[in-house]
Structure formats: C-alpha cells, structure tokens
Amino acid sequence: MIDELEAAGRRLAEVPVEPPLFRVLVDRRRRTLRAGLCLILVAAGVAASVVFFSAERPPSMSIAQSSNETSDSGSTGDAIDLVLAGATLQLTEALVASNSDVMTWADAAQSTFLSVSSRPRLVAVQPVPPDSEAMTPAKAFPSEHGTAWFGVSATDTSTTAKMWWSRPDGDVWFVNAHWYGPVRPGAEAAETRTQEWALRLSQDRDTGTPVKEVTFGDGLVLIDVDEAGELQSNAQVWTYNGSEITLLSIENSVAAGYGNVVAIGVPSRVVVAGSEGLMVTAADGTVTVGWQPSTGPETWYTLTIPPALSAQKAAIIDALIAS
Amino acid sequence: MHANARDARVERLSADVHIDEPTGSFNSFYQAEYGRIVRLLYGQTGSWAVAEDIAQEALLAAHRRWQRVENLDRPDLWLRRVAMNRAISVHRRLVSEVSAFTRLRRLETQPAVAVPEDAEVWAEVQRLPRRQAAVVVLRFVEGLTYDEIGAVLGCSAETARTHFRRAKERLAASKELRDLKGADNHD
C-alpha cells in the first residue's frame, strides 16, 4: 500500500495545474457571494406550497404559526449575523440539502413528538432496516400492511421509538416518536402507540384525508410538512474563543429541521433573532438551537454550539441578529 | 427595508475582498503554490472541485494578510495550515450535519478525478481519520518532513510521525482486507 501511495503521490504531483488569473479568481469569489444572496431572493418569490399528502398549512401551529400570519409574497428569509465581539466569520458556503418527505407533529406541552419520513421505492433495495440489530420485528403488526421493525430506547428523561415500515406499495416509512417529561410510556406502550399512529396516518392517507386533519387523539398538532427534493442550503461558520459555531439554513425544511432538533433531547423554548425556537443540549454538551424566522419563506435554521462554548450559549444566541 | 439591508450586506461582504492586483512577491507565491495546494487537497478530499475551492479560499486569505504572511519564515507552511484546517473543517461539519431526514453535500461543478488509476488509493486515504489523512498527503504528495508536517498541523514532529505510523497500519490492514475479498471473489 505504501508503494502504491508513493507512486500515486508522484503521479499526482505531475498533474499540470494552471492557476487562474488572480483577478479572475477574486471576481469569481465576488460573483459567488452575490449569487448566493440572489438565490435567496429568487427562492423568496416561490410560494411555499405544501403538496405532500395534499396537506394545507395547519390553522394552528406552534412555532411555525406566525409565518403564515405575517409573511408577505416576495420577501426573503432573514439573513442572520452573529454580532459578538471576538467572533470571526470563517466560512460561508452554499450546500445542497437532499430532503425526504417529512411530517412532524408536537403536542402543546412540547413533550410528545412524532416525525414520519417517507422513502419512495426503498423496499426494493433496502427491505429491512440497515441497523436491524438495533431493531426487532414488530410483535403484532398486521401482515397486510407490510413488515415493521421497532427500536425503543429510554433514559431518565426520554423515551424514543423508531419504526421502520416496509410497505406493500414499495415505500419505506421511517417513524420517530419521542416523549419527554415525567409522564412517558413504557417500552411496549411506546411501540404500540407509534404503530397505531403510523397505521392511522396511512389509513387516513388512503381515504384522502388531508394530513392536517389527521388526528391521533394525543393532542398532537401538525407542525409542518416538507416535500422531498434538493433544497438550497447555506452554512456559516464562526470561530469564537477557539471553537466553531455553525449556522445552517435549509429552505422548505421546517418539518425535518424540527424533527431533527427534538430527536436530540429535551427541548426548551428560546427566542432567537426575534423568533421563537427550540433549544436542546445533547449528552456531550453540544447545544443545538432550531427555529423558523417569523417572517419570510419556510427556512429552518440550526445553530450548533460546541460543548466548549455551552456556558456562553445565552450570549451567543442573543448575538444572532436577523438583518 | 429588507432589500436595503441585504444590499448593504452585499457591499459589506464584497468590500472584504480586496481586488487589487497582487504585488510582485504575492504573485510569485500564488503562481508557485496554487497547483501544489490543489493537488494536496485533492489527495485529502478526493474532489478536484473542492480542492480548487479550498485552495482559492486559502490563497485569498494569504493575499488579505500578505504583509504579515510574507514575513513569516515559511509562508508556504502557513498556507498549507490554512488550507488543511479548512479541508478538515469542511469535512467535519458535513459529517456532523448528516441527519435522519436530511443529507448535505457541497455544490460541486465537476466531479473530476486527477489520475483515474489512483482513485482507489486516494479513496483509502480519505477513509482515514482526517489528521492521519492530512499527514499522508503532506508526506506523499508534498514530500514534507515530519517537522514541516508538524508545523502545518500545529503539532510536534513526533505526533506527526505517530499519525503517519497509525495511518500506515490502517492502510495496510485495509489492503489486506481488500486482497482477501478479491481472493474470495476470484475463487
């Protein structure tokens, strides 16, 4: 292997590389910068219609509610700056986010959450969960609905049920349910309830019920629905006291973003850049904050604060300014 | 109001990039280092487009700080340090942001492979822990000494040597595994 590497290194060193004219390089950087901002402007002109499961925007959502009330056509998502002495913007780059179809619900107390992600035609190539050792076949799953696996885990503060459902239509549904707080189901009840929710959603879809009208009987209210696709995303990285703070924005990704945040741990409410959001501290001390700006298009922001800066999270969050 | 704020932001951000023609010494540095840095980063990232992107970012950073950088003992090592840190940072962030519902990738304009017959070799390097991968490319693409590698990565020469030894062990084990699988398939 070392011989191969030496030879490969020699061959690579001989590959001719012509540096671009420096002025061209600088100009290209400037255009990239402008293009990134223009993309945001263009995206803002697109109405954020929700098509998955014939969903319409729910009349009442928790943190996403104000978007419908105040957004105006043609406005853009808020640009976010970190205005904090000692923080230096290291990197801004455009990314592509590949989203699944995702639906997320939460109860009013923010203690129970349900996210369902659909992976079309996945059964053909991945009929069983890739981490099947951590999941077991469902104990009592009606065979006419396909095959399901469950993995239930619990800590002192949370219970999580994950369901992999290989459906007869060839799609795989990946269902995540989280319970936080003092009142939580046991492992068996968590599996049963998650299965009931998944089957209810499926049956209502078969009868053409709009997803916003699906009721689970547990006080769950639809947060949002994302449509699968390739989405514009932007990452900003600041260095502060020797650590990196990362802010990631993904357009039309509220359900996925919300679901990802509440999957980390016990969420608490927080105000970020004038909007209401969720904050979670992971077991390793990493702080994650997620929010949708109260104006503009459907963009979900995720701020990641490393453990080394967790004691300064309040100052960092306060320093995020929507411009 | 939002549009005005954005316009101001564009101007502010654009103003951060100097557009002066490079001075004589920077131009020489730029001409000498651009290709080397791109090749180095290709070995680490496996993407020519990403390598060029990061190399350009690093050279622009050098240009912005040229008065200070050119007075360093080894501006070339400073440039490699900036570039490698940026490559490691990009990789780490993209890995950490993969989640249950969303996958992220960079915008790549061209999936170029520098030397097609060596693609698998570099893929093995890219599967190494990032510091080990960095040491391997600095050693095999650049031919740097352990002292120089330590200066680039911000560690001692001894630590660089340890990274290299561990990388060699991993690569050897990986090759054995591949050879075994190849033999199985052949049988």
Strand and helix layout:
The complex is a heterodimer of chains A (323) and B (187).
Chain A: H1 2-13, H2 22-44, H3 65-70, E1 80-82, E2 88-99, E3 101-106, E4 112-119, E5 136-137, E6 147-154, E7 158-166, E8 172-180, H4 187-206, E9 221-226, E10 229-240, E11 243-251, H5 254-262, E12 268-272, E13 275-281, E14 287-291, E15 299-305, H6 313-318, E16 320-322
Chain B: H1 2-15, H2 24-45, H3 48-64, H4 66-69, H5 75-96, E1 102-106, H6 119-126, H7 130-140, H8 146-153, H9 157-186
Helix pairs in contact in B: 2-3, 2-5, 2-7, 3-5, 5-8, 7-9, 8-9
Protein model, in words:
The complex is a heterodimer of chains A (323) and B (187). Chain A folds into 2 domains: 52-100 and 227-322, Protein Transport Mog1p, Chain A; 109-218, no CATH class. Chain A has 323 residues and is an alpha+beta fold. Chain A contains 6 helices and 16 strands. Chain A has helices spanning 2-13, 22-44, 65-70, 187-206, 254-262, 313-318, and strands at 80-82, 88-99, 101-106, 112-119, 136-137, 147-154, 158-166, 172-180, 221-226, 229-240, 243-251, 268-272, 275-281, 287-291, 299-305, 320-322. Chain B is mostly helical and 187 residues long. The longest helix of chain B is centred in the C-terminal third of the chain and has 30 residues, at 157-186. The model of chain B is unreliable at 1-19, 92-100 and 106-112 (pLDDT under 50). Chains A and B meet through helix 1, helix 2, strand 2, strand 10 and strand 11 of A and helix 1, helix 2, helix 3, helix 5 and strand 1 of B.
Strand content of chain A: 25-35%
Identify low-pLDDT runs of chain A. Answer: 30-77
Helix content of chain A: 10-25%
Strand order of the largest sheet of chain A: 2-10-11-15-14-13-12
Kindly, what is the distance between the CA atoms of the first and last residues of chain A, rounded to a whole number of angstroms? 53 Å
Number of helices of chain A: 6
CATH architecture descriptor of the largest domain in chain A: 3-Layer(aba) Sandwich
Number of strands of chain A: 16
Secondary-structure arrangement, i.e. CATH architecture of chain B: Up-down Bundle
Mean pLDDT of chain B: 75
Shape of chain B: globular
What kind of oligomer do you see? Answer: heterodimer
CATH class of the largest domain in chain A: Alpha Beta
Q: Name the shape of chain A in a single word.
A: globular
Q: Biggest sheet of chain A, open or closed, and with what strands and sense? A: 7 strands, antiparallel
Structural class of chain B: mainly alpha
Largest sheet report of chain B? none
Low-confidence stretches of chain B: 1-19, 92-100, 106-112
Number of strands of chain B: 1
The tally of structural domains of chain B comes to 1
What separation lies between the terminal Cα atoms of chain B? 71 Å
